């Protein structure tokens, strides 16, 4: 089984995939190797990506908070505590921080602004506007704090929230995204669950990613691969550092380990 991140790993900054990487994924599937997408994206949005690659495997979404078959069956789910979510939403409102709120695999924003319009446009997804002060919080997949203009600001949010909410998973998934989830909502926990569900040994799993939120993903793989464009933090956990996403690093890694 190959478990791969999407953005920065098989898709570049323009949210497209090269023909070489697409053909590589097709070849893996033909060899009987399951290719599983593991992403911070919503499940409903990731289904489109899976269909593009003609994958029928389960999808790991919400940073590992949800594993769902494409038939609709939920295999694993970890939801964010509503009381903690309310405190974080209040903090965001008081500090003018943009939050994406995900409930029941749907995206909610409190206003139509640059952050949510850019985020949804780039990923071809829809969103709903609601009053964050009065919305009923239930079945919360995650919260996502965004500032596309100030990566240092996002780092500060991440550090602050980790101190205030040590019981949660709080990570930077890109320089501009701070993700807030249940502690059990990590790509590592999800891969561990899925490989056991599939009856696989750790040595039979290759994991590959590019950002610090992929550290747990790499640790869960018997072979751990970091992209050439990965963070220095992630590369420390890699058995192999491949080429960049712009140079088809995913395909290079598969050729190194699975097509030799």
Note down, in words, how this protein is organized.
This protein is an alpha/beta fold. Helix content is 34%, strand content 22%. It contains nine helices and 14 strands. The chain has helices spanning 19-30, 43-52, 82-94, 114-123, 151-164, 187-197, 215-219, 232-235, 249-257; strands at residues 2-4, 35-37, 59-61, 66-68, 74-77, 98-103, 106-109, 128-129, 140-146, 168-174, 177-182, 206-209, 223-226, 240-241. The strands form three sheets. Strands 8-7-6-9-11-10 form a six-stranded mixed beta sheet, covered by helices on one side. A five-stranded parallel beta sheet has the order 2-1-12-13-14. A three-stranded antiparallel beta sheet has the order 3-4-5, sandwiched between helices. β10 (168-174) and β11 (177-182) form a beta hairpin. The longest helix is centred in the middle third of the chain and has 14 residues, at 151-164. The two termini are 16 Å apart. 45% of the residues are buried. The model has no long low-confidence stretch (mean pLDDT 96).
